[in-house]
Amino acid sequence: MREIAERALSLLPSTVSYADVRVVHRHHELVLAEHAGPGDVAYDESLGLGVRVLIDGQWGFAATPHLDAAGLAAVTRRAVGQARAAGPGRPIELGEPVTTRDRWSSPVEIDPFTVSLSTKLDLLDATVKEVETAGPKIIRVEASMDFFRDEKVFANTEGALIEQTITESGAGLMVLASDGDDIQRRSYPQGVPRTIRGQRGQFAGTGYEHIGTLRLVEEAARVGAEAVALLTAPECPDEVTTLVVTGGQLAMVLHECAGHPMEADRALGAEISQAGGTYATPERRGNFRWGSPILSVFADATAPGGLGSYGYDDEGVRAQRTPLIRDGVFVGYMSGRESAGQLGQQSSGAARADGWQRSPLVRMNNLCLAPGDSSLEEMIATTDRGVFLDMTKGLSIDDQRMNFRFGTEVGWEIRDGKLGRLLKNCSYTGVTPQFWAECDALGGPDEYRIHGIPSCNKGEPAQVAHPGHGTVPARFRNVKVGTK
Amino acid sequence: MSIDETQVRAALEAFGDGASLDIANERIDLLRYARSRITAQHGEERFRVRVRVERGGRVVAGSLETLDRVAVDALAAKLEAALTIVGPGPAGAAVAGHAGPPTSTGPQPAALPAPTTADQRCDWFRTIRAGLADKAALGGSIRNDVIDRVVANSDGLYQAETVNRINVQAIAEQDGRSVSFRTLRADPAEIDVEPIAGQLLDELGDLPMREKASGTFRVLLRPQAALTLIATYGYAALGAAGYAENRTAVAGRMGEQVVSDLITLTDDGADPAGVPSRFDPYGAPRRRTPLLDRGRLVGVVSDAKHAAVTGGVPTGHGVPLGWRFGADPAPSHLLLEPGTATEDDLVTELGEGLIISRLDYLRILHPKDTLVTGTTRDATFWAADGQVVAWHPQVRLTFRLDEALNAVLAVGRDRQCGEQPFIESVVSPALLIDAGPFTL
Fold first, then answer.
1. Which positions in chain A touch B249 (Cβ < 8 Å)?
2. pLDDT single digits (tens) A272-327
3. Which of A86, A90, A381, B52 has CA 20 to 30 A from A234's CA?
4. Final residue before a domain boundary, out of A231, A263, A297
5. Would an 8 Å CB–CB cutoff place B360 in contact with chain A?
6. pTM, full prediction
7. Residue where a domain terminates, one of B204, B235, B264
8. Are A156 and A246 in a shared domain?
């Protein structure tokens, strides 16, 4: 792979002011067991090269799976031809040159690709059987594991040469229950807000050792029983009340309200034809009150074992920790080299590409909310009236990332400091700065977890990123909750 | 066609009995622009081979990006080993989308239009930008996908086609307001970029911004908003799996009136008003499938596993292996029959209410109730006395799709074609919806 990258770079004409090449070899393994179905075993492999060139202020990018001499010649010609077709553009500032030569690998104790298929299937089958103990109202159970490995080589015309091996492991459970009229869903340990098959659950940038920490079999019966109980549960009342959420549910809220809006390319208009713009405009840096003073958010690609952790981003910039919100005030962006240059700063090392075939975009790595000093138990105990919600089921947010609605799989009423009845069809709405301004309690460091979700879409053509989200349980006052 | 039939047949032999291949050689060319500047050009060539082997009720799958014999043999060995470990599903459960006996849609009927070139895409961008003449900033993209497809299986099925898709988006921004133009076509000759800038500037206009209205009002969904609604309804309600398993709003209601009698909806992969494709990822021909006839439910779309719901024959709407929107059959080429009203007619009939150009991030909250939530985007206007009188702030709308479609008062004459992530093309006119389903 290293030779291929260097050969591709050598084919570029001298008129190129900057170029980089990425060769990526990706493996993905899915193992899925299901109730009343054959399950799935799938092995996916992808190998190819992407080359990006900058000529006269215009980018060209081309990608190919053909790594022979003819393929490399064709792909470099295509990238150069695209940049030239655009004609001269304005100078693009990339900041300090990237000249690193290094290797990096995810911390892996047990290589998931060496664990036998039967071991994986035994665990998943046992999980499904535990769910089935909830009775005949269970209509669908899917328990799955996914493992990814990217072997990547990055090289550029500034002299960088970086080899990385990134391993990701995850597993989860999805249950549907029905009584003929109603259908309810419960997931564990993390929900995915779409009907994806596989790639569910909690993911980490580690090896198979992560799977054992998830306690799938141990939790399965409870998850199944809750799915059935939801069928007869009352609906979430429509009211303005106090909301307590789990760290897992908060992960997606943070993702949408703070993560995407603070991607620098989005703030510079690059996503206008896709997901849209952002309220976090450059002139608001340092003076926009995003939320209550107890809130600080940062992007951290160095978090050990985080799903969004790496040694270097896909522009060769070293992984780092970047403040985004400090004491409730918006202070910074995640950025790549070009977007950082436009903002007059250095890259935050957040340019990531989905495989070899897509060019790097600014993406979340591990989006982290600094923990507070409360606890879930204390938050509930000190709430007279409210709801406690868990597990994102559906979500929508406007193109400026202000006006949102989150649905959750499950809720409980809170009465006089205690959890009360189970509630179904819960959702809540808010406007980003108003909602976060009402946050008055955060769980402490012992409740802090990085929730890895391998399904963040952005860009055109669409790219799927695998970010982590460091969160704790949290409490918000005066939130509009309900079913509709 | 860039896919070698000899290699395909050799691969089928390597994977053995019960194998099916879904192969795509995709070439994507894309020009993106923001704030009136080109920001990215992207050229991607990708060869994808999805393999599924189904034997004795056991199913395994894989993918690779070559038909090179060494790689094929390596995957075949892995799948063969996996087949000895995985358990069989219940009887009949394994039939996901296999098309069964060989069927063919025959050769592709017409010569394909030539794809766009990098120079042509840049010219289109410059034409639109010049038309805006610094009165508004231009963002958007021009994308051309050329996809050679082959679906083949060990029973002798062999289907091949090439699909050309051209997508143009132009968003003009001025003083915090935005308007958009979007189109999806199979032939670049059908795209005339000259008038786009003029249309965008006309819409930007100089109307005042009013405060957010409160209450329930009539709503005019312009074609790009209506097609999002139609596509989401089709995905949520008109698949055979959900119908059979009582998971959708229309389950058990075949032949009944389920929406307004002004709504006639068909799925047709051959209709040139959309972007045609002739077979699904399992090779089943995409059959023209009437879904709603003057509001009556007359059909759903199916794959082989759920063909019993559609008279024993799949309608050709299986979804790809590992599809991120699930495994159930789903509409692929929806077409809503047009009415006779011009947009001016519809605004007149609207009287007072909201005019929505785009529905954005429309997500299903409760599938069986077709309850969705989403926001408006780009040009959202307010009408009074049958005239467009003001811009309206963007709003969140949480509503039932079936209620909205049941409250249709009029259907527009002019249709537009678009796409959603979960559907290949959808063609829709504007829809005028009565007060009730939408509350601001």
1. none
2. 888 889 999 999 999 999 999 999 999 999 999 999 999 999 999 999 999 999 99
3. A381
4. A231
5. yes
6. 0.92
7. B204
8. no
